[in-house]
Write a structure and sequence with these properties.
About 35% of the residues lie in helices and about 15% in strands. By secondary structure, it is of the alpha/beta class.
Length: about 240
């Protein structure tokens, strides 16, 4: 999950890193991983900092959890006749602040804060998970980002643990457009049908692949046939090898 929007073409997807040859038999599916919300977490202190300047009494944990809850609401709620509620209003309900203050906060954050600052906390599960993942399992990040996904993942110590990265800003295509997933599959040398998407929300999930693997550490989503829900990244280890 990311607050960035795709922009113009700047960079082609990079080739997959070399991995050890697969054993004979069926290859495990490749993982197409979201970055924000899965490998890199939102820094709630950034929101709390800007909120305090607007007179909001907001702590970092509440601010961060409210983002996840608002995204869940967007994923699951039936839009009223007047149209879907703005993200800032959904976030305000969970952050316990007035909607107009929430709108001012998010306008300020989107104007003044780079995604690499807002999404800058390395998920403590990420390195152990990637290191424990079999070398037979290809892993490729597909992220709606602001052009800095490679630098962000490199700074987090994760880039060398991946087979590649697609940044929506760099290629000019954003999830859930199926073309960005096909680009990742081509870079991996795999049919798209042999890939599984792992994300923390449903909004960017491809609709033409097997069920999304939904990373839900807070346990805020119901069980549903549209996705396979996991609470920890380590739960993937026994399902993809």
């Amino acid at each position: 999950m990311s607050t960035a929007q795709s922009r113009t073409f700047a960079r082609q997807p990079e080739p997959a890193r070399q991995s050890t040859p697969a054993r004979t038999g069926t290859r495990p599916p490749a993982l197409l991983l979201d970055s924000g919300g899965v490998l890199i977490l939102l820094d709630g202190e950034v929101l709390a900092h800007y909120g305090r300047h607007l007179g909001l009494r907001l702590d970092a944990i509440t601010a961060r959890h409210a983002v996840s809850l608002a995204a869940r609401d967007q994923d699951l709620e039936d839009a009223p006749a007047t149209g879907p509620r703005p993200f800032a209003h959904l976030w305000a309900a969970h952050a316990h602040c007035p909607p107009d203050a929430a709108e001012a906060l998010w306008r300020t954050v989107r104007r003044e804060v780079d995604d690499t600052v807002l999404w800058s906390v390395v998920n403590p599960e990420a390195v152990p998970f990637l290191d424990a993942l079999s070398s037979r399992v290809q892993r490729y990040v597909v992220s709606n980002a602001d052009g800095h996904a490679h630098a962000e993942l490199a700074g987090a110590g994760l880039l060398d643990r991946l087979d590649g990265v697609l940044d929506s800003c760099a290629v000019g295509i954003a999830k859930p457009d199926p073309r960005i997933f096909r680009m990742a599959a081509v870079a991996l040398g795999r049919p798209l049908e042999q890939c599984r998407y792992v994300g923390d929300t449903l909004d960017g999930a491809p609709r033409h692949l097997p069920s999304t693997i939904l990373y839900d550490p807070l346990g805020i989503y119901p069980d549903d046939a549209r996705y396979v829900r996991i609470r920890k990244l380590s739960q993937l280890l026994d399902t993809v090898d």
